[in-house]
Amino acid sequence: MDGKCAIDIDHVSMTYKLYRGRTFTAIDNVAFNVRPGEFVAIIGPSGCGKSTLLRLVASLEKPTAGRVAVDGRDPSEMSRQHRLGVAFQDHALLPWLSVRKNMAIPFKAADLPVDWQRVDELLALVGLSQFGGVRPGQLSGGMRQRVSIARALVLRPSVLLLDEPFGALDAVTRRHLNMELQKIWSAEAITTLLVTHGVDEALFLADKVVVMSGRPGKITRVLDVPFQRPRLPELMRSPQFHKLADELTLALEPDGTV
Predict the structure, then answer these.
(1) pTM for this structure?
(2) Does residue 88 or residue 157 have the better pLDDT?
């Protein structure tokens, strides 16, 4: 990695106008950056503005103060050029289309010919080659999320944005998909920003963990994760992993230390 910023969050605030002249500040003066190829996780209590921050990077909203840049450009420009891959907790797969045809949607949205080789390559990467012809309703929740992430990567974006992609899944499936996501990230070598409630998930996957406080959302700690890659499930049972997980959990408490 070089010293450039793939994602630059420069003292960003987001305030919403409510009725009768009232306002609500979701995030306040948030600043951090993500280097090219880096995997960064954002954790924090519900309502702290994690997803709002991701939406700003995804060009789904504009900040009321500060600046967001992706590869030095406005996120809206990156979005128009289909350089942002996004996957949410809701997989958003169309139930009447097969898995392969769902994977082809980004090509059609970008008015590009479908690269079926790329589609099949990604289905193989997420271990779903044999399910290309089935519909989403025939897949498990974990399989649908893998398709969603693969679809987010199909146009070879510069940045992958993940908003609680495994939040609705059981603990065993979630841990398995953490391994899958690590494999995908390693194979694609893509800058990734993950929003999660899971401290263990953040520590296992990320190079850096950003901790946010609640209402308005502010950064209280940035942790450089010391574990080497590739990371195996046994890491989660190590004393150092538990020590850092306890520190991050404490930092999430309203009166936690940093």
Answers:
(1) 0.92
(2) 157
